[in-house]
Each structure stands twice: as C-alpha cells, then as structure tokens.
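Please, structure for the following, as tokens.
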Amino acid sequence: MDKKEYALVVAGGKGTRMQSSLPKQFIEVNGLPIVMHTLNAFFRYSDKLTVVLVLPEDDFHLWDELVRKYSFTQPVILQKGGDTRFQSVRNGLDKMQGPGLVAIHDGVRPLVNADIIGASFRLAAVHKTAIAAVRLKESLRVTDQDTTHAVDRSKYRLIQTPQTFDLDLIKKAYQTREDPGLTDDASVAERAGHMISLFEGSYENIKVTTPEDLIIAGALLGRRD
C-alpha cells in the first residue's frame, strides 16, 4: 500500500538579511507572497498531499489577512512554530500520523518543482531518506587563520530542501536533544544513526534570503508563467 504523503513547510524567517520589516516569507514576488508560491508548488505536485505550514504564532493574523487578500484557497493545516527551526519542525511533525512520508521544505524556496518533489517521495519510499543537493559551481578553499588551501569541490554538495523522510523515522529522530550542530533535518536523522541519501536538486531551487534573491526569484518565476 502506498504511504500517505505529507509536506511540512517551515516559514519562520524574520527578514533581517532581507532588510525588511515584513517577514521574508510574506514578501510579494510576481503577484503572490513567497510562501504561497512555495505552497502552490507542492499542490501542483499532488492535490492529495496533506500540507502543514509552520508559522510563528504572532504571524497567524497576518497569514489570515494574506489568505483573504490573495484569495488563497489551498487546504493548508496551520501549526505554531517554536523558538528555533528545530522546534518548529518538531511541532509540525506532531500534526502527522504514520505510516507515511514527509517532505520538509523551506517556506522561502518557492522555485521547487513537481519533478523534484516527486523524486524525493519516490526515493524516500525506498531509502527512507532523500535529500536534494547540487554540485558546487565555484572553486572551494579552506581557510585556517592566515593560510588557505584548495579542496576538491567534486567531493562536496550544497544541500537544499525538500528533505524527505519516512515519517516514523524522522519523528523519532526529532526526539533527540536540540543542539547547534543539527543544522538541518538530514543532520537530525544522521545523528539518530540513519544513512542519508542525496539526489540531484536544481540550481533554480534557491532560498530567498537577501534582496538580490528577490530579483532572481522574480525572474525565474516570471519565466514559468
């Protein structure tokens, strides 16, 4: 029997690097707030997907206003976030019941596409973990105080989301104690002793973090319209 598929979209950014008083996930790009582009991407993959959106509780009222303003009708389950991304993901997972698969995704990666989402679910169904990643384009150097040396970039990957898991596996992994070394969901699963499987992501699947990213995201979204 096919496992139930969930998406957990985490959108707790404050917009500091964006130099904006409005949280970055709510900034409008090409006619919609960034997070709504992200949510629509998952519903384009499947209208049977159960989607949980994690927001800071203080932003619930703003979300309700935006839903009305943009006539957003997708069936999203809202969950209160925590003080950290780790806590927010754990809260979001509490809304889900197994057996199932869950794709955990940054709310400010609006350019994820259905092919990547679908691949993540198919691979996680087999390997229990499936993490989107891309190869480095630039040269890479390690710095050590006043010296630097080149390293072989072919051995490294830039990690993206979605990061997709067997639901029971990742829920148990998130029962661990939080610490700064757990920088993403893959590191949480790895800490719990699980093998991490990578698959090819997309250079278009950018995380919108700085003002320049808004320009790039707008251009890429416009090309899809």
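The chain has one domain: 4-224. The helical segments are 34-45, 60-69, 85-93, 114-127, 167-173, 185-191, 211-224.
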